[in-house]
Amino acid sequence: MLEAPFAVKAGKNLTEQNSRENLINMYVEKVPQGRGQIVRTGRAGVQKNFSVSGEARGVAYLRGGDYAVIGDGFYRLTTTEAIRLGTLQTATGKCSFGENATQIGICDGFGLYVWDGTNLTQASLPISAAGSFAALDGYGILNDRNSGRFYRTNLNDFSTVEVLNFATAESQPDKLNRVFTDHREVWLFGETSIEVWANSGTAGFSFQRVGGVALERGCGAAYSVASEDNTVFWLGNDGMVYRADGYRPARVSDEGIERLIGDARPYSDAYGWVYAIPGHKFYVLTFPGRLTVAYDIATGMWHQARTWGSSSWDIVGPHKLGPTVVLGHDGVCQLVKTAYQDANDILERVAVAPPIYQSGKRIQVDAYWLDCEVGTSDPSVSPSVMLSLAKDGMTFGNVRTRALGAVGDYKRRAVWRNLGIARDWTFKVSFTDNAPFSVISGRMEASVLSS
To answer: How far apart are CA 254 and CA 260, in angstroms?
Structure first.
């Protein structure tokens, strides 16, 4: 048997008839030795902890615990329940958070709410609407969603915002759509530019622009901003995904991912978050109901993620690592690498391999063998893998199923025989059982015919 090409990334080819390679709910693990140096394995599953009704709006690790906004409620989360601490004036839209020594600030895109450990109150603001909120050195930072201005609260008092305690991001005459703090700096994301400010410690308005830094690249979605790996990620106003390389926007998306993003317009409701599993950290970018793509910071590879029955992964996670929980569409959950369902629903793992093509000559495939994980499922599960073929590069035919064996059946092989003759072969593999699934490679017995 010869090794056949197998999927390593997600994306949309400029010409789909050239390649339909894709990874959905699977990512690449690079290994130094073994039968193969690349293993495709399923993403973390979603384990539901308990139900809470309302839109999942934001979650963060603050003051030593997990907090969330769900619907119009502000909650402290435990492993078994959501404790309601107060009520917001809105019930939809993403939220941002910040903390000082004694308070938590929550912005719902309009107002600023302050939790002092006992009560949740709404701050009086000198602007009609606050776009987002962050905190640094005891100060709260919020932007006027209708201008390039940003304000600071009083020190260790998020509830007080003086009318003259503001500055303006002036490198471009654009509106600010997000304030974000990272490494003791304030990142001001505008529609067409980005500035970085820091606390100078001087009297009065102590925040000053860092060395005249201005990134000539805007932010296409306020809540796409997230931080991990000592840097900041965001969706640019040009539909590309960036990470900050110092104070330079470094593109991390490729053409295939950017075509998927282009198909998922508009950008404005996209949100980004981060999570980690052993050996990997992911920046996840979701266009609700349309698309989710995830960037593996360890490998630089992208994959798609989906909830069963949806075109996106309907999970809201933290903008910075910390929370042990995420929010699903109907409750509080956690991500578990050894969970193989999404909140008791199907977790479908899909890989579409690059095409097998030999200068237009006919190829006869006598057997296709999927070199994958076998004999490892729970005894109550009888796992099977599904294969479908496109012999014209586009149209997939009937699904053919093969068992992956009972526990301990490590000699089991998933083999499909007598597949026929075609000039252009594309193999699509899918797996829906509540069991682990990893693929090392595809192998085939084939011969190239004379014409």
So the answer is: 10
